[in-house]
């Protein structure tokens, strides 16, 4: 074989060896990548199923707890509570209502425990007392005394204490209905009473300024959004207007001061709109039952609409102070700070001795 024929052959062999090595190297690299990818995928699925497995376990524990709590509640209310009450009565000679009245002074704790005792009772006579009207309370008390065999000569205060609690409990329900009826009442510009109430609000807040016309941009000066305030009452109806007027009429100096604060160049807000928003807050607290401790401590009888509106006045005054203490960066953060204030009020209402009344600062 000549030299010239040998050179190409050697060159082809060298290229073949190089190509084989390159392909082997590529295969090893690809195999490593595939292996790594498989490991990553396997790890992902292990974590995925592990997380979901843990989640399923947590959910199972949660539902098992709820199931046991439901079973315990059923057994307690159906069997254990009844026999425990019977046993304590045999020992003390007093029924549960008597023990409540002797253990707690007049106020929220006594009324709430009385309400629960009546609700959980197996006796229809006691449960029906929760639906009593103000003029039928005495009749329900007489039936309860007979049902529970209360010896009034030994417990002369029983009827008085029970009457106060029933008036508070049933009065709260009546107040909820009255507030709801007022909320559902739509502001009607054709209604002279509605219009008169709206004009009264203007005169209370702006006594030295004449309103140019019923439809006017001047309404923005007291915090309404448009030229006609009626559009702002859609959510809370006449309840929103009634609360604004009540606050301005019963606390005129405070109302004007809060209005002045609302015009602050940096921390200002829409006075009327915020007032209507706080009406919604007061309404939700009333509807949820969160206001029971406050009213039970405040009123030794049936709470009235005025008591609700005084609580609203407390909210307006305290929110104004809260807003300026927090110094929010923008009015766009209103909902965030409103919710923070809402949570603060709810925490206060959880205290058994709570009493939220408007207390004026000395400079006012």
Automatic annotation (TrEMBL):
GO terms for cellular component: membrane. GO terms for molecular function: GTPase activator activity. It comes from the Eukaryota. The keyword Membrane applies. Pfam families: ELMO_CED12 (PF04727). InterPro entries: ELMO_dom (IPR006816), ELMO_domain-containing (IPR050868). Keywords: Membrane, Transmembrane, Transmembrane helix. This is ELMO/CED-12 domain containing 2. It comes from Erpetoichthys calabaricus (Rope fish). The lineage of its organism: Eukaryota, Metazoa, Chordata, Craniata, Vertebrata.
């Amino acid at each position: 074989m000549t030299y010239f024929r040998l050179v190409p052959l050697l060159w082809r062999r060298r290229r073949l060896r190089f190509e084989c090595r390159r392909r082997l190297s590529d295969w090893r690299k690809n195999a490593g990548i595939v292996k790594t990818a498989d490991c990553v995928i396997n790890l992902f699925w292990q974590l995925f199923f592990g997380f979901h497995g843990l989640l399923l376990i947590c959910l199972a524990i949660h539902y098992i707890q709820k199931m046991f709590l439901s079973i315990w509640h059923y057994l307690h209310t159906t069997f254990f509570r009844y026999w425990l009450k019977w046993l304590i009565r045999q020992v003390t000679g007093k029924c549960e209502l008597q023990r409540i009245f002797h253990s707690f002074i007049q106020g929220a704790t006594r009324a709430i425990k009385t309400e629960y005792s009546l609700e959980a009772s197996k006796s229809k006579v006691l449960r029906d007392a929760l639906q009593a009207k103000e003029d039928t309370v005495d009749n329900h008390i007489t039936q309860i005394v007979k049902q529970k065999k209360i010896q009034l000569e030994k417990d002369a205060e029983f009827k008085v204490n029970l009457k106060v609690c029933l008036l508070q409990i049933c009065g709260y329900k009546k107040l909820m209905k009255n507030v709801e009826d007022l909320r559902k009442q739509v502001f009607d510009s054709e209604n002279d009473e509605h219009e008169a109430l709206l004009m009264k609000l203007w005169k209370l807040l702006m006594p030295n300024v004449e309103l140019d016309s019923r439809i006017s941009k001047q309404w923005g000066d007291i915090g309404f959004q448009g030229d006609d305030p009626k559009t702002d009452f859609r959510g809370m109806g006449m309840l929103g207007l009634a609360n604004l007027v009540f606050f301005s009429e019963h606390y005129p100096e405070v109302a004007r001061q809060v209005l002045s604060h609302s015009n602050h160049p940096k921390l200002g807000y829409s006075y009327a709109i915020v007032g209507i928003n706080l009406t919604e807050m007061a309404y939700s607290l009333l509807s949820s039952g969160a206001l029971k401790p406050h009213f039970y401590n405040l009123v030794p009888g049936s709470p009235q609409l005025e008591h609700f509106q005084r609580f609203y006045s407390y909210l307006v005054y305290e929110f104004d102070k809260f807003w300026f203490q927090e110094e929010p960066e923008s009015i766009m953060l209103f909902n965030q700070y409103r919710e923070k204030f809402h949570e603060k009020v709810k925490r206060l209402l959880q205290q058994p001795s709570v009493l939220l009344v408007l207390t004026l600062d000395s400079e006012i």
